[in-house]
Write a structure and sequence with these properties.
Number of strands: 6
Shape: globular
Number of helices: 4
Distance between the termini: 14 Å
Helix content: 25-40%
Length: 154
């Protein structure tokens, strides 16, 4: 859908700029973002930033993500997006439910999915020298970026 590229860049910019500078020295994290949702019964990614692994987020994968965010079906854990393993679903700050996952073959790659208003946000973070503190920080900044998008009505 036209006009969504700026919003994907908006959430990416927020996530990348909010990542703790102290952690960034040892374990930098770079996010790519996709933004989408449901349109005429089809769930898909409408826009994404450069480097986003869009091949993993087919309409079927996006529908499974959206169903899990809305209804907690559990299907996402047995049918995750290609190349990822889903680890957990959490209720984070700002009343945002986040699905958390990791790449199967790319070390340090994390996946976060959430809804803001009616938009689906998919953030893929690449963390060098990844550890639990970095993953916790990546989750925090992803949640803040989605919250900022929600405040803008996205």
């Amino acid at each position: 859908m036209a006009g969504w590229d700026g919003w994907a860049a908006f959430t990416q910019g927020h996530a990348n700029s909010l990542y703790n500078p102290a952690l960034a020295q040892e374990s930098p994290c770079t996010f790519t973002f996709g933004i989408g949702g449901e349109n005429a019964g089809t769930v898909s990614v409408w826009a994404c930033t450069s480097g986003f692994p869009s091949e993993s987020f087919t309409p079927a994968a996006c529908k499974t993500i959206l169903d899990e965010l809305r209804d907690s079906t559990g299907t996402i854990f047995t049918a995750p997006p290609a190349g990822f393993t889903m680890i957990r679903s959490i209720d984070s700050d700002h009343d945002i439910k986040v699905l958390c996952g990791k790449a199967k073959t790319v070390p340090g790659r994390v996946l976060y999915c959430a809804m803001s208003n009616s938009s689906l946000h998919i953030g893929v973070g690449d963390i060098q020298n990844s550890n639990s503190a970095c993953e916790k920080e990546a989750l925090r900044v992803f949640t803040l970026a989605v919250h900022e998008a929600a405040l803008k009505g996205i």
